[in-house]
Amino acid sequence: MTLDDLTRTSGEWLRGTGPESDIVMCSRIRLARNLADFPFTNRASRGEKAEIEAQARAAVASAEPEASFFDVNAMPNLDRQFLVERQIISRELAGGEGPRAVAVSPRENASIMVNEEDHLRIQYMLSGFRLHEVWEEINALDDRLEEHVAYAYSPSLGYLTACPTNVGTGIRVGVMLHLPGIVANKGIDKVFRALQKINLAVRGLYGEGSQAFGDFYQVSNHQTLGKSEEEIIRMLTDVVPQVLQFERQARQELVTGRRQHLHDQVSRAYGVLKTAQTISSEETMLLLSSVRMGINLGLIDDLSIATVNELFIQTQPAFLQKLRGGELGVEERNVARASYLRARLAEGRGDDE
Amino acid sequence: MTCQRCQDEAVVHLTELVDGRRRERHLCAGCARKAGLVLPEAPADLGLDAVLTSLIKKHVGELVGELAESSCPDCRLRYVDFRTSGRLGCPHDYRAFREGLLPMLQRFHGATRHVGKRARVRPGAALRLRLRSRLRQAVAREDYEEAARLRDQIRPKDQNE
Questions:
Q1: Between chain A and chain B, how many beta carbons pairs sit less than 8 Å apart?
Q2: β-pairing, A110-114 with A171-178?
Q3: Which tens digits make up the pLDDT trace of B86-131?
Q4: Hey, is the C-beta of B77 within 8 angstroms of any chain A C-beta?
Q5: A164 vs B108: CB contact, 8 Å cut-off?
Q6: Shortest distance, CA A353 to any CA of chain B (angstroms)
Q7: Cβ contact (<8 Å) for B91 and A152?
Q8: B52 at the A interface (CB within 8 A)?
């Protein structure tokens, strides 16, 4: 698999299948792991980072033989941005320096970043609300990798990480939620505060510090020490259904109270996306969010959730530029985005797999 | 002038009025600290690192002042560098800076003991971490003979696993 192949496919986590997938876009777990006999990435020499990468490559070849291994250091900047947009690598890995890499499984469920803040950042994603399945998958992948490398671990402190905020399980368990209803009824701050009170973090679509856009929010644990992986997962599986209930309630109120207004808003959004000649990324996200909710509420019936999910990612700048085969300025991107949207939305349901 | 408590050079000179009577104290830095007298800050080195370090010491207190200069024997990271950057240098730092880290872990995680998945025990790994650190030092001082020897020590064990 090459990077260009990825422009013709999309990750399984965008399929819009699985439990609660009208609101839960995907479930994701990542594990932070380090090799026991090397300094952490920030303190490792270039030579040591190259050795870490070589060991990781060999371990991945046995543990996840179908995965493709990409040298991020040798990659053009556009390709790195492309992988960030697809949630395969972090901004930190994209902007880092020295030997670093990523392994990606064919359907993009699994990815393993090498020489990010920690030597290995293992990630597994599935569409819908399926944290237990994700844990089974990533736990097994972690075991397979460990057959080939020695992890930095202490019986009292658990998996040792470059930042003490990840020590212990090294786990981050999260769900990506689409919450246009709660945003519309202005309840989002209240939900944030309630989640923060029970030590859950809320972030935007592209992680730490990034602004939530398209009404997508990631909810995840941030404490990693003193609770087992299962306990942390249970915390999420207990709390997320309450957020889902708030969102459904909010949507229901929109439908019953202001149905005509809502239908108008959704139809206009769909209309603009289908016909615009130039459109910014921000406006696209805003309108796609309306359309996504419209499909879930039965106000649009000739478009699949999977297509809309994909469009959130495939209208980002790097994807469009990869598609056009080179760098584009802002104006050119806005034209390319509108043209891509028109083409994809004209396909309608025929595009579904 | 010598310290009134020991024979070192006095650097703190204090004049107090106690019950209307004047009292002079002349102490060395060590005795002044023991007596609970606050020392004036050393003249500021205006480098950003020095400013940050002094700020961290001020806010995190005397314990860090002592811990601050301690460093990891393996990766050579100083505790104060960790407090500035937020990143540790190697797995051994968790042992080297245990005293400073435990209260921090308690604050952030509400716990200081791991519960959950366990890694496999790999006895050779800690030794190889040390050998690699000696290898880095040997390369830095251009002792290539020692470096080659260390490399040989690290290599075969990698392949055994």
A1: 134
A2: unpaired
A3: 999 999 999 999 989 999 999 999 999 999 999 998 878 878 888 8
A4: yes
A5: yes
A6: 38
A7: yes
A8: no
**Helix H or strand E segment including B139:** helix B125-140
Q: What is the DSSP string of A75-127?
A: S-HHHHHHHHHTTSS-HHHHT--SS-EEEE-TTSSEEEEESSSSSEEEEEEEE
What is the Cα–Cα distance from B48 to A49, expressed in whole angstroms?
A: 29
State pTM to two decimals: 0.83
Cα–Cα nearest to B106, from A226, A316, A195: A226
Q: How far apart are CA A169 and CA B80, in angstroms?
A: 26
A44: closest CA of chain B, how far (Å): 8
The interface pTM score, or ipTM, of the predicted complex is 0.88
Look up residue A23 and give its DSSP letter. T
Instruction: Answer yes or no: do A156 and B113 touch at CB < 8 A.
Output: yes
Q: Do A39 and B114 make contact, defined as CB atoms within 8 angstroms?
A: no
- A311-343 exposure pattern, b = at least 16 Cβ within 10 A, e = fewer: bbbbbbbbbbbbeeeeebeeeebbebbbbbbee
Give B-chain residues touching A45 at CB under 8 angstroms: 136
* B122 closest CB neighbour out of A139, A150, A171: A150
- Counts of helices then strands in chain A (DSSP H, E): 13, 10
Convert the pLDDT of each residue in A24-37 to its tens digit: 999 999 999 999 99
Closest approach of A199 to chain B, Cα-based (Å): 9
Rounded to a whole number of angstroms, the CA Rg of chain A reads 21
Cα–Cα distances in angstroms (integers) from residue B104 to residues B60, B89, B108, in the given order: 11, 17, 6
CB atoms closer than 10 angstroms to residue A102: 28
Residue that is written with structure tokens 């584009």 in the block: A328
